[in-house]
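Example 3.2
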Amino acid sequence: MTTTRRVYGLHAARSALEQTPERIQCAWIDRSRRDRRLAALHDALQRTEAQVTVVDKLELERLAGGARHQGVVIELHGAVELDFDALKKAVVRSLPDAFYLILDQVQDPHNLGACLRTADAAGVHGIVVPKDQSAGLTPTVCKVASGAAETVPVYRVTNLARTLRWMKAQGVWLMGAAGDAEQTLFEVDLTGPLALVMGAEEKGLRRLTREQCDLLVRLPMFGRVESLNVSVAAGVCLYEAVRQRRGSAVGSSDRPAVPS
């Protein structure tokens, strides 16, 4: 899908400028703010082909929808969310080191933004979300992601269960997170082609999504809370996978044969 969207905040704007300057169409800068970082960003934006306009604070607040903008709003044009066909090509290209995060109906934009940021840091090849009941790449998501929305592809698919079956057929190991799983995250092998599957806030994995997973794991909980925020849990799972994939651990579980 090709569209235009706005992001705001110094970090998000700087990341867009560094990573995809060709996508920046317009930028608005607060004329009343005296900030060295903002001034440097203003100068850099003026060296691009984007239209840069100095406006008052009220106009910036309107452009940002009332969100905290830190004196800058930019408008980006380009591919925002990709589809199943794009995912298939990406998975094939990323083999045998495929590393994906699947978010099953995660609706909180702050959680999606945090997952994007961690996914970028962990070297994830992409995030897959279902078409319905899932947060999109809104300005809030992009701000929380701190630039990761520009670097981590988001694939929105119509049928998540079918997508998971296809990924399994390519040899991608699907590991789902569930509080009632018998094994903990730290007892399984997370090397090789892998997709971590995380459920929605409070509800967890849907039945059809859960049934597609090769294995379910849980995070050991030693306190009184029953579960972690989905973005926190995703961070723990992703970095345990990173640890193992860098060769510092040997998995203890045998994987079943991949269906043909």
